[in-house]
Amino acid sequence: MPGLLGHRKSFNRRFRSPIEKEGDVVRQRQLSLRIRPFILRRTKAAVATELPPKHTILRRITLAPDQRELYETIRATMHERVLEGIAARGAGQSHILVLDALLKLRQVCCDPRLVKLPSARQNGTRTETSSKLDDLLEMVGEMIAEGRRILLFSQFTSMLDLMKPPLTAAGIRFVELRGDTQDRAAPVKSFEAGEVPLFLISLKAGGRGLNLTSADTVIHYDPWWNPAVEDQASDRAHRIGQTKSVFVYKLIAADTVEERILELQERKAALASLAFSDDNLPLQAMDADDINFLFGTSPGQLAA
Description:
Elements: H1 8-22, H2 25-35, H3 44-47, E1 54-61, H4 65-89, H5 95-110, E2 121-122, E3 125-126, H6 131-145, E4 150-154, H7 157-169, E5 174-177, H8 185-192, E6 198-202, E7 217-220, H9 227-234, E8 246-253, H10 257-272, H11 288-294
Parallel strand pairs: 1-8, 4-6, 4-7, 5-6, 7-8
Antiparallel strand pairs: 2-3
Helix pairs in contact: 1-2, 4-5
């Protein structure tokens, strides 16, 4: 429908800026009414009524003292770098810098060995403690003993590499799927045949196109910005053909950027529902206070 929403500039002026920056509910409703006749939404609940329920569980993990100290060191260092970048170029031109800083914070939450920074070394030695990995290994061991079949997702293939040695040492058999896997069918066949109880999958490689209904448990080791990406990954198990309830666990490092990512996920999900509902909360684009929020500081500090 060319022309339905006008040119890009007029669309930004009439809809995007008022909705994202000002939370304009009237403009939200106007945009929703305009595009709704051209969108057919068929939810899984309406189409596959026979599907068993999916349960989502947040598992908050407290970082060990040395990992927490490293996190705070990197947070302070990267936040200062972001402040300097924004002061020099403005917030609009500093997105790459912000995302790189947040990436490093997410990595230290997963495992300090992922972080390639001098500050990741303390007293001349790298901090090896990963509270999240320790919790994961204990969790997976208990679940497999109960007969659970598990899909384990991480955005970082390097994190999957760090998981494999302790899993092997614990005698836990697994298969793996990542972007560079040549034969995707082999690990899928092995898992679905019940030969192994655990499937390690990189988030981007396993987000779609897989039918893994023999699994009854999904673990997201690290949260991602877009909730739709995580939902697609979880739905490798919760899809037509599934006969068991599916339990989705999200591992979150407490009092870190990972908890703040969850709130951003909620905002993004609300924005995505704009076309289907008149009942939307006002949303704002990421601004100075949002950046400070992600770095765990109080609103107003950036402006000051």
